[in-house]
């Protein structure tokens, strides 16, 4: 009886470990493509221009 319970527990743990490995190995697009696209578009349209302006401001201030 104890060995049966341990075998069942061992099989369950192996199954869950396999499921976790599948989830962890997914790319951002495979995990949730819509969220990945949203973040990527936000980065291109907002963050990069702001970062460029900050960098330019710091460079011009350094030259003064």
Structure report:
Helix content is 92%, strand content 0%. The model has no long low-confidence stretch (mean pLDDT 86). The chain has 64 residues and is an all-alpha fold.
Please write out the topology.
Elements: H1 2-24, H2 28-63
Gross morphology: elongated
The total tally of domains equals 1
What portion of residues belong to β-strands?
Answer: under 5%
Low-confidence parts: none
SSE order: HH
Largest sheet: none
Distance between the termini: 81 Å
Number of strands: 0
- Average the pLDDT over all residues and give the rounded result: 86
What class, by secondary structure content?
mainly alpha
Residue share in helices?
over 70%
Backbone CA Rg = 24 Å
Report the total helices. Answer: 2
Task: Provide a compact summary of the structure.
The protein has helices spanning 2-24, 28-63. By secondary structure, the protein is mostly helical. The chain has one domain.
Essential attributes:
92% helix; mainly alpha; single chain; 64 residues; elongated; 2 helices
